[in-house]
Amino acid sequence: MKLIDVALGEESADLVIKGVNVVNVMSGEIHEADIAVCDGKIAGLGKYSGREEMDARGFYAVPGLIDGHTHIEMSMLSVSEFARVVVPRGTAAVVADPHEIANVLGVEGVRLLLEEAKRTPLKVFCMAPSCVPATSLETAGAEIGVAEIQELLKTAGVLGVAEMMNFPGVLSKDESVLAKIAAARALRRPVDGHAPLLSGKELNAYVAAGIRSDHENTSYEEALEKLRLGLRVMVREGSAARNLKSIAPLLREKDGRNLLLVTDGDRTPKDLKEQGYLDYVLRRAIEEGVDPVRAVQMCTINVAAYFGLDVHPGIGALTPGMVADIVLLRNLERFEVERVIIDGKPISPASFKTMFKYPEHATKTVRIKEVTPADFHIDLNGRRKVRVIGIIEGEILTDEIIKEVEGVDVDADVLKIAVLERHGRTDGNIGLGFVYGFGLKRGAVASSVAHDSHNIVTVGTNDEDMALACNRLRELGGGIVICDRRIVAELPLPIAGLMSDKPLEEVISRLEALEKSVRKLGCKLRSPFITMSFLALPVIPKLKITDKGLVDVEAFKLVSLVVG
Length: 564
What we know:
By secondary structure, the chain is of the alpha/beta class. It folds into two domains: 64-311, Metal-dependent hydrolases (TIM Barrel, Alpha-Beta Barrel), CATH 3.20.20; 362-559, no CATH class. Helices cover 27% and strands 27% of the residues. The chain has 17 helices and 27 strands. A hairpin with a 2-residue loop joins β15 (336-342) and β16 (345-346). α3 (99-105) crosses α4 (107-117) and α5 (146-153) packs parallel to α7 (175-186). It is globular. The N and C termini lie far apart (77 Å).
């Protein structure tokens, strides 16, 4: 076998990276060595010669980074464009939960994502979405039950069952929920968790049911409790949800083997370009005092070991027999990338030329009837005390605020919010409510990106602009639209109403126009569109809204708008 011959020094390697500082995630140290590469794999560390040799003295070599929990669709980019952006910055693989596209297109959406990924250098693995829909309190475009989970687990590239957001279903021993967990356990596959603020005996029960990780950690105490109970603690640092600073002491002080750094897909296109992807999270960890080698472990070997990727295909470390996904750095702490090597081959712009065409039905997914301002009218029947969704800046958690209102009150920052079922599976459900903290002084915003069922969510100061924005989304096939008596800015997202088919630069340009427009209308939120997209997510406390109405997440039930 050629790989063994090269390892023995009996045959020249295809490529030798000479004299590099190897960041060894197995021993937790940095040491100088040559890295010999043969047929896309690492043959050995030591002193080697090759047909091609690269002088890397003074540089650092780290394994290609692996994001252990992401949602590619949240980037608003196609998989091909996403790969073009993140691979040159050092990310070689991702483990995606494609429940965004699955909530629109079902099992086919997962397969389309994996099929497109094959045409890129990025290694894309998926988890079978466990919550499509996430709850019975909303209407999704598809349903993934136990049979579909079992089908997906047989699909190449699917590693296990994705985040079990329905933790109340686990705790109440819902048979369909437990059957999805059992399907993964029968094949010795991991099941990811999603248990914000769950603690004590309820957390014990959740873990005992077979959950093995959780990325919903917002404090040191919460993360520590989950770590002590055996969960892989995934620490998220994104554009909207920023949890690293509060959890950093855990990363510095405790055993790091079961700690992972992830993005959760929460990176805006602009942040991807200006700050980076998983490399940004790594830098942030180092800024918070985490040892650089330890931080690298948390987004390479720790991830690979949890998902079994260190065994097959063999990624996550720079050791003999592993896939040669190597990132050469000029500076380790700042993660300044000099070159990226995937499967033993240096990456160049030519590596990202392949295009992928989605079938027409995957780009025609906004199926709402034309709406009128009357569809957004809220009749309080003379009563004034209502439940209002309270936005918390920098978090996807929300408050439930009881306010006395007569309707929209721009001066008090109480706006109208609505969610329209857009998959064509109802007679036109529209959930109506009020939201505090968005800041608009006039106009309206609407988006087909609304986690997790991805119905249309709109926030506005008046019914006319809300109707205009939603009708424009109907014409575009999805995206984000801002109206102020007319359409003032828009970003089409034709792929499942979630992703653009355009380059990053065009997406950023459109988003910048949207952000400029929304700020002119009064909104001061740092990430207004990400924040708005999570207002429809009925698995993150406390008060949310779906096409069926207001949801008390902690009680896991629909509640009336009017109090008393």
